[in-house]
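thread: overnight batch results

M.L. [08:02]
morning all. the overnight job finished for the chain we discussed friday. pasting input first so we're all looking at the same thing
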Amino acid sequence: MAMFSDLIRDLALIDLPMTNQTYTWPNMQHKPTLAKLDRFLVSTEWDLSFPLSKVKALPRITSDHTPIILTTGLLPTPRRFRFERVWLTKDDFLLKVPSWWNEVPCKQSAILSITAKLRHCRTRIKEWCKSNYHSISHTKKLIQEELQRIDHLEEHSDLSQESLDKRTNLKGQLQLILKEEEILWNTRAKQLWLKEGDGNTKFFHAVANSRK
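M.L. [08:03]
and the structure it wrote out:
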């Protein structure tokens, strides 16, 4: 541990503090031992380039280590419309698409009809996504906040059985939401592969190997 501390000092690395939690690991005992084992270390150049960087702790789900996320504070870029495979897992989506398609009357030209119907469906899908996935995103946020509250409570006192059971239940709900997100990101990874081709070979081999 002393050698690691010396290395951090010699390289002049900065340990970015977490904004919402102190510790990242408990030993999961009735009277837990708490420690900060997970952290982001950045160089001075990074700190100057990304002065708005923040580190946030996320709820523990399967591991006994708290996942941490680093955000740079950069402005998001506009998103373009893309079809997501995860939508096909939603029964209401499969039922709505035909009705959306038929909301636009056919025109004399088949090409104009198809174009108009596709544009209308795109608009309706965006509305559906905003309503449906805003709700999922909101639910995920509430679950994460409640898990965070329980984790904070554990830092200061022993958890009751009710709190332990509640945390287990919330983790199960969060796993279902994360499964949907996994389908979403797997689809986007394939899209990136098709777009970039061999340029991503090393990256995807590394991802595949890390999952074995």
